[in-house]
Specification:
2 copies of one chain form a homodimer. By secondary structure, the first copy, chain A, is mainly alpha-helical. Helix content of chain A is about 75%, strand content about 0%. Chain A has 2 domains: about 1-45, Arc Repressor Mutant, subunit A, CATH 1.10.10.60; about 45-185, Tetracycline Repressor, domain 2, CATH 1.10.357. The first copy, chain A, binds a DNA duplex (30 and 30 nucleotides) through helix 3.
Chain lengths: ~190, ~190
DNA sequence: AGCTCACTATACAGATCGGTATACTCCTGA
DNA sequence: TCAGGAGTATACCGATCTGTATAGTGAGCT
């Protein structure tokens, strides 16, 4: 990716996230990236493609960040679940003051045949699979159920964070998960 | 409100919710409502005003629906909490297959000085106050904490419902709340 | 020196945006 | 019977939208 293309993607990511996808035009993206529209279209071909790469890149970076956080966490399953919430809190503090970009993008992209659609649903499926996987180490018989509960608390915390419903909802969710795992898991299994 | 104005609001509500606010133009709204743009602007003055009335009307109808469900519920506090989730499930099945309209609108409205902003945040504050109030009847010493947890589960369920992460997440949240209240509340206080 | 390629600047096309103006019809009620 | 408000149809405004075309600049590489 050329330097100009990277600037375009960075500007688009910031603008799309802060103002919404449909509210941002390519002229503004080009201006903020200090790039002409010609260059923008030479690199990406369409606004839709910029949207797709914006979401895909954000998904990639989130997964990489989370993987790094999980690697640094203790190998105890309960600790790893909590590490996900810690990662979300750190990520949201820096990159997501308006909530989950996938959820926000989904509000603007109605057509399931839109090329960005599978990126959005894919991340949510992946997160549910991750939670279910971690839950399987804690309560093997109820992995699906516990995984879904973790998913709901996590998504709810992201939404509450974005709408500033109350202070630091991700930490609140983390605490709830902690007590939930304490009453549920009994002995948290080693991984 | 004149018949034409009502048709405009109904069409705008459907289009805004399904396609997003910025993706829908006033020409389309007028066409779908079988109304000329002249009439549309005579009644509402601006697209922004239609957005405001769309959200305010939806908020009103949700609160009325929820109040009706709570009136029909048993006067036991735990049952009333569960009745909120039952109400959300019924409401979402009919009106909210794409998730919470307030959350979705928030994704597109970044400016806190936008006239629709207080409607969005107001509903969330109101829901948190409702959950906290109900929680106060169950665990008076931990009303704020329990109320926030209920809020997170509820918001998470709405998001998961809208993104179809797994089937019927609102029922799942309801079940989790049920077990949470059983372990927490002990004897659910009468109202 | 000469070539390639990323990039810039400017202008424009066709469509659509929110918003307005004019002139008309229809229905109700006094 | 007639006035007036609600609504209609159509045409238009300036601005902005996505996307394209042409011509030129500048740095690195061989």
């Amino acid at each position: 990716m050329t330097p100009a293309a990277r600037r375009v993607l960075e500007a688009a990511a910031r603008l799309f996230y802060e103002r919404g996808i449909h509210a941002v035009g390519v002229d503004l993206i080009a201006a903020e990236a200090r790039v002409t529209k010609k260059t923008l279209y030479d690199r990406f071909g369409s606004k839709e493609q910029i949207v797709v790469e914006y979401l895909a890149d954000r998904d990639d970076r989130w997964r990489a960040f989370l993987a790094q956080c999980l690697d640094a966490a203790q190998p105890v399953s309960a600790a790893r679940v909590l590490a996900v919430f810690d990662a979300s809190r750190a990520w949201s503090a820096k990159n997501s003051s308006k909530g989950c970009s996938m959820v926000n993008a989904h509000a603007e992209i109605s057509d399931p045949s839109h090329p960005a659609y599978p990126i959005i649903t894919g991340q949510k499926e992946w997160m549910l699979a991750l939670f279910t996987d971690l839950a399987g180490d804690i309560a093997p018989g109820r992995a699906a159920q516990l995984g879904r509960t973790l998913m709901l608390l996590h998504e709810g915390a992201l939404v509450a964070h974005g709408l500033h419903v109350f202070p630091d909802p991700i930490s609140h969710a983390r605490e709830q998960v902690q007590t939930l795992l304490a009453t549920t898991g009994g002995a948290a299994a080693k991984r």
